[in-house]
Write the structure tokens for this entry.
Amino acid sequence: MLHRICIASAFAVTTALASEPASEAPATPPPLDPVVGAIIADPLSDKEYIDGDNCIDQRRLDDIEIIDGERILFHGRRGRVWLNQLKSPCIGLAPGRTLQFELRGSRYCNFDTFRPLPSSSYPRRGPQFGSCFLGTFEPISENQAGLIRESTDRYRRAGVRPKEDTKPTEVKAEQSDASS
């Protein structure tokens, strides 16, 4: 029933937008890490999306893992993992940092804000970082989380950003070679 309501709402919004004159073209989002792009291009089954992943209850989580300044993994019970690609890069966000969330209730939700805390044992010393915004929660497998972690570590060690022109199909072939 909820699925039908969502489809009907999406149709109504699409119809309303189609009747308005076209304005400026939307800004192109920044390119994805090739491995992350391949994972997103090959999503999990519809069953994995039923819960609606705009929010995740804190009680469903075991750990929060910072991948880099743009991505966080939320590890849940029974091996569930969600990738959260932040709304924009978060200054000061790095693996091992402590995060201070500003939540409404007991759930982490799309657009909730948080701040990375300084590494210093004295919170008032060291750099103070601004607020960052969570994106949507994309369910991924533990294997996909490992590939994201491995890819990010490889680029971090090399001191380079991912190539923007790598196609997801090229990455999939690379992944299958690595797994054999």
